[in-house]
Design a protein that fits this description.
By secondary structure, the chain is an alpha+beta fold. The chain is built from eight helices and seven strands, in the order ααααααββαβββαββ. Helix content is 54%, strand content 14%. The protein has a five-stranded antiparallel β-sheet with strand order 4-3-2-1-5, covered by helices on one side. Strands 6-7 form a two-stranded antiparallel sheet. Helix 1 packs across helix 4.
């Protein structure tokens, strides 16, 4: 036989468990992105160090120089321990950054451009290496090329059929053969992102008259796509997590 006191204790216990679960999930939302970001940075830095540092002679390798200095200082050695070896992470990233800047500076000069053309001519005569080099070069130019081109505005288009609307980003005005062969008047190139990964999507060529431009910024439209409609821009241009009633 249960009493009202037992029911109150059960209700209080369930309420406490619910609050603990809510606090844990709220903390996880904060800690998980930060932890994953730090882990990714730490892993990438370690990978770059592992690739770059083996090319340095042991005599000038930064970690060896630091450990040699530590081994000669009795006070530091006593504090850290006799067999302690300091692992210096990030030196390879700095060396890679400086080396890449030096190569870029040389490649912009006359001698550097001539040497680069000669090297590409040699690679172009190697069947397998040529395909790998061209693919990697195209990928690098697409990802790292410094251009001023970017998505101009967010827009609405009827896709994938009439009556269904999708958010897209205006890229450029369509030109060349695509515009000529379509023969539909002025056209605009738009990028339709996928949810929740907006870096993948579809390139579509739409008649300009069928595109409805939005007042929201490209960043707000991207947040709307990534959140699958949960984070919705309000009328003032900001973003709110609350869905309209």
């Amino acid at each position: 036989m249960t009493s009202p006191f037992d029911e109150n204790n059960d209700t209080r216990r369930r309420g406490m468990i619910a609050r603990l679960r809510t606090n844990f999930l709220a903390g996880l939302v904060v800690v998980l992105p930060i932890g994953l970001t730090l882990w990714l940075i730490w892993s990438v830095v370690g990978w770059i160090d592992g690739v770059v540092l083996p090319f340095l002679p042991d005599a000038i390798e930064p970690a060896n120089l630091i450990n040699q200095y530590v081994s000669e200082d009795s006070r530091i050695r006593q504090w850290l321990g006799q067999d302690t070896r300091i692992n210096v992470r990030g030196i390879g990233v700095i060396i890679f950054f400086l080396f890449t800047m030096l190569i870029g500076w040389m490649a912009k000069g006359v001698i550097g451009r001539s040497f680069l053309r000669w090297g590409e001519g040699v690679v172009s005569r190697m069947p397998v290496v040529r395909s790998i080099y061209n693919g990697v070069k195209q990928l690098a130019e697409t990802v790292f090329a410094q251009t001023e081109a970017s998505f101009e505005k967010a827009c609405l288009i009827e896709y994938p059929r009439k009556g269904i609307w999708a958010i897209a980003f205006i890229s450029t005005h369509t030109k060349g053969e695509v515009l000529t062969k379509a023969n539909t008047g002025p056209m605009t190139s738009v990028f339709v992102p996928t949810t929740p990964n907006p870096t993948s999507g579809f390139l579509l060529f739409f008649p300009t008259k069928d595109i409805i431009e939005l007042d929201m910024s490209v960043e707000d439209a991207a947040k709307l796509v990534i959140s699958a409609g949960l984070v919705y821009p309000n009328g003032e241009g900001g973003v709110t997590d609350e869905a309209p009633e």
